[in-house]
């Protein structure tokens, strides 16, 4: 079985002491390719270096995370576009809206998102989106605001079946449906294994495996069995196993279909 990890932050300082060991461990656990998410301007260089070391195995995605308003300087969008134009760059992300931790800075978050959507429209790379609703879900829906914005301003015109990911999905079915209607896939990670996440498991079942990709969001969000510990890409098979049991599908099938979805979306080179 071969898996694709679609969302890792391996340049995070949590991996400074053993990054190469963790990457080796991940590849020997059945991970074939890793999408490295580099969403802070200060990390773009490290992601480029990581890719240089693991050519055709690690593919960077570059962007500016919602909330990092101080990174929207005069120079950064230009540097970002240069990085996105590199043929090994898999996409733009993670970008979006997060109302959970701080919903007081919506204006600033929209300012970054506007700039990122403009860049996506210019360059035509697929997007990895981050959305998280506020604590008062009805009045603070990041998913609804994000999908409305994409509907209005995202001119990403291609013939592909899918053109982005709602990574680390945590919304309700209406949120998922709004994303699926825009050609977005749903990123499933360790939160699928959390005891209380029954609603999420049902949403994934309803969305169907043809719309799912696997991710860890490491070093964050470890699966239930290692909660509280550092997460890494070798946990992907654990998440796939939990999905296999819940959806009553063979793990091999989950590996094949989610890898095909990721290869198609990111236009990754074949074996
Ligand atoms: Zn992330």
Any key phrases for this structure?
alpha/beta, binds zinc ion, 16% strand, 9 helices, 8 strands, 271 residues, eight-stranded parallel β-sheet, TIM Barrel
Helix content: 25-40%
Rg, rounded, reads: 17 Å
Q: Give the termini distance in whole angstroms.
A: 13 Å
Form type? globular
- SSE succession: EHEHEHEHEHEHEHEHH
How many domains make up the 3D coordinates?
A: 1
Sheet with the most strands: spatial strand order: 1-2-3-4-5-6-7-8
The CATH class name reads Alpha Beta
CATH architecture classification name: Alpha-Beta Barrel
Q: Which ligands, by name, code or SMILES, are bound? A: zinc ion
Q: What's the pLDDT, averaged over the residues?
A: 95
Query: What name does the CATH topology carry?
Result: TIM Barrel
Entry summary:
Helix content is 39%, strand content 16%. The chain is an alpha/beta fold and 271 residues long. It has a single domain, classed as TIM Barrel.
Topology (elements, then pairings):
Blueprint: E1 3-8, H1 19-28, E2 31-38, H2 44-53, E3 58-62, H3 76-84, E4 91-98, H4 106-123, E5 127-132, H5 142-153, E6 164-166, H6 173-181, E7 184-188, H7 198-207, E8 212-214, H8 236-247, H9 251-266
Parallel strand pairs: 1-2, 2-3, 3-4, 4-5, 5-6, 6-7, 7-8
Structural commentary:
With about 270 residues, this protein is an alpha/beta fold. The protein has a single domain (about 5-265), classed as TIM Barrel, CATH 3.20.20. It is about 40% helix and about 15% strand. It contains nine helices and eight strands. An eight-stranded parallel beta sheet has the order 1-2-3-4-5-6-7-8. It is globular and about 45 Å long. The mean pLDDT is about 95.
